[in-house]
Amino acid sequence: MTDFFELDFLDVETQKSGDAIAVRYQIGNQWLVHVVDGGYQDTGPRVEELIRMHYGTDLVNNVVLTHPDGDHAGGLRTILEKMRVDTLWMHRPWEHVTDLLGFFPGVASASYLRRVLREGFPNLVALEEIALRRGIPILSPFQGAKIGAFTVLAPSYSRYLHLVARSDCTPASTLKTSPTLTQLLGKALAHVRAFVQASWGAESFSPEGVSPANEMSVVQFARIAGEKILLTADAGREALTEAIAFAPYAGLDLPGISRFQVPHHGSRRNVSTALLDQLLGVRLPSQVFIPTFTAVISAAKADPDHPRRAVVRAMWHRGAKVVSTEFGNLRTSSSAAPLRAGYSAATILPYPADQEGE
Predict the structure, then answer these.
(1) Average pLDDT of the chain?
(2) Using N-to-C axis directions, what is the helix angle for 273-280 and 309-317, rounded to 10°?
(3) Residue 103 phi, psi (nearest 5)
(4) CA distance 152 to 326
(5) Which end of the chain is more exposed for a tag (fewer CB within 10 A), N or C?
(6) What would the pLDDT profile of 69-118 be if each residue is shown by its tens digit?
(7) How confident is the model at residue 304 (pLDDT cuts 50, 70, 90)?
(8) What one-character-per-residue DSSP string does 238-301 give?
(9) Please, which residues have CB within 8 angstroms of residue 313's CB and are 6 or more apart in sequence?
């Protein structure tokens, strides 16, 4: 049998964007189903329907929650409740209280810290309760873990512990810092942005970073049917830097990705020119008309903040066909994947002549 994959990004159509991804792939004589995030709770039934209708099964081999935000975790409740699931992969910070206690000098009791962590991450608790009730094994997707054909590039265990300690969902730790004036102003001016004309190749990214929860995102790589797939969820610059450093150990030679999930719905706070150069290749000297890879952005049509024009430009600069779920569900596949009725070529996002200013 010929190896293939089909990779589906569902449109999470609310006022805010979310992620819901399903993958069916065949290697040799075995094919597997891999779900990554499920959008909001209302998205879950649509993920279930897609798998049943287009993958022809009620079995999901691996479900991966990349990080605890509700726009990724909510819909997975339906998958765990309504479908047969072999394994749930997600991080549960309360499983690591022994190693976390050192970050919280004011906390002497492991049982207290465990309770606080469970209260601080209710989306994780909800999924854990369903999985335990249904007898679904739960494994931790730390760096190096093998999830079917996918390898986890980030987060490492040590960096994850630091991110939990920095999270707003935990007691005061030695790592917590107050927001800077730049960060506070950035949030206040989020909807008051000036756009500036820019020539080909110019890139403008935000100096702000992302939340510790987003930096927890599970970054996954798979090579299937000769193509390289990189799923990034809401990974920020810390996570991407760690993923790039680990890539050689996972058999990923960079740059050059065939299917690239643009982080965090196309936010300017997650990427940089240097990181994109390492992942995707350096900027081309001029605009090309034959794309060399596909860059997918999970962004809702009603979301005024995503995707950012600077990020769309950056994908074009590296030879991408840039597509977005704001126009509906997206399917990208290898050449040997089964044909699917009712699907047509995706709308390619045009190259913006301007971008967000600093």
Answers:
(1) 92
(2) 40
(3) -80, -10
(4) 28
(5) C
(6) 988 999 999 999 999 999 999 999 999 999 999 999 888 899 999 999 99
(7) confident
(8) HHHHHHHHHGGGGT--SS--SEEE-GGGT-TTS--HHHHHHHH-PPPSS--SS-SEEEEE---T
(9) 198, 202, 203, 351, 352, 355
Residue of 347 and 232 predicted with greater confidence: 232
Count Cα neighbours of 145 within 13 Å in the Cβ-side half-sphere. Answer: 21
Q: Which two tokens stand for residue 206?
A: 């935000």
**19 by DSSP, 3-state: which?**
coil
Categorize the per-residue pLDDT at 244 as very low, low, confident or very high, splitting at 50, 70 and 90: very high
Q: What's at 323, amino acid-wise? A: V
The pair of structure tokens assigned to 105 is 């000098």
Mean pLDDT confidence for 218-247? 98
DSSP at 2: -
Look at the pTM and tell me if it is higher than 0.90. yes
Residue 227 host element (H or E) = strand 227-231
pLDDT above 90 (res 187): no
Question: From CA 334, how far away is CA 3, in angstroms rounded?
Answer: 9
Spatial separation of the C-alpha atoms in residues 59 and 165, rounded to whole Å: 36
Helix axes 122-134, 110-120, angle to 10 degrees: 100
**Cα radius of gyration (the chain):** 20
Sign (positive or negative) of CA dihedral 75, 141, 315, 32: negative
Residue 275 has pLDDT above 50, yes or no: yes
